Amino acid sequence: MRASSTAHSTATTNPAASWGAKRARTTAPGGRAAARSAGSCSCCARDWENLGGEGPAGLIAELVLASDVADYVRFRAVCRSWRRCSPEDPRDAVLDDRFLPPQWIMLDKACARARPGRHRFLNVSTGECIRMDLPELAGHKLLAVTPEGLLLLLHEPTLVVRLLNPLTRHLTDLPRLNELLQTRGYKSARSLHVYGVGLVADASAVAVCFSCPMVLAVAKPGDESWTVVDKEYMISTLPFAGHMSSDQQPPRLVVVADRRKASLFSLMAHGLHLVDNGGELMLVHRARCPGRSKFKRKYDVYRVDLDAGILIPAKGLNGRAVFMGMRRTISVSAGR
After folding, report:
1. What's the confidence (pLDDT) of residue 293?
2. Taking every pair of C-alpha atoms in the chain, what is the biggest distance, in angstroms?
3. What angle in degrees, to the nearest 10, is found between the helix axes of 56-67 and 69-76?
4. What count of Cα atoms within 13 Å lies in the side-chain half-sphere of residue 209?
């Protein structure tokens, strides 16, 4: 009231000073001015922590989780109250598809020089890039990355295979490899590689295509050993729609293409790459062009009809770009 009284006195004694000046408020205490002032103070001191329960924070948590697990982890990190109103702790369900980060890929060795244990992750849907410290990788060998965004690790001292969710930082133990190696005549896991991995059977089991030994094995968390499904060589495997798709014809697999039916197929000159192209399973056939430079390649694209068991020639990739590697093929929007 002192500031209001002074302004009113100045305007009365000096008319020239009142021109263009802010007019003094004459609202009585408890009127609109007081209410506005009180509302402003209330906004500045809003108790964000106590918005949980059945209120906005709980609803926001559900919406955030439905969008991206990375945002859900950030939401839970705000305060204890917001963690209480969150539906579930992502660390309690590493194979729950709600907490999987399929749109995030790890950029190998991107930050290794700057800080050991720190890795960069790229969201292939939004282009967002984040850095994560992963001390859980210590003592482990990175075998592969699943299409669901999980890291398949081998704890070398014990030969225990583990799955790491890099965003929730939760580890899940899978069976040891001792029995699998011994039955195939291997004394160690030095030459062990993985050419395909993913979740199958409603995300309750993990299927891994190992090399050295060359087997396709399946296991669930809590199992004592790996179950060998197939022992044949497979060029490309990809978990899709709850099944393990392959380019071969072994039992218990969804067959996409059998290279043995192609008389001109050569492992040195040809390659088959299965890819989840925005929710559509596709096969890319890479072939060296005959009579031309060894660097010239020809690419044929097919849509995979799992129900009919046929390949349908396609003219393009629906505006997406496909990156093909020895062990993994990914598809991203070409517009980002």
Report:
1. 60
2. 105
3. 150
4. 25
Dihedral of alpha carbons 64, 331, 199, 157, sign: negative
- Mean pLDDT within 319-336: 77
pLDDT of residue 3: 41
pLDDT at 47: 55
174 has pLDDT over 90: yes
- Spatial distance between the Cα atoms of 101 and 210, rounded to a whole number of angstroms: 23
The position carrying tokens 């499904």 is 229
Residue 48 has pLDDT above 70, yes or no: no
- pTM of the full structure: 0.63
Give the C-alpha separation, 239 to 106, whole Å. 19
Is the separation of the CB atoms in 44 and 76 below 8 Å?
no
User: Looking at residue 16, what is its pLDDT?
Assistant: 38
In the sheet that holds 297-305, the strands lie side by side as 270-277, 280-288, 297-305, 310-314
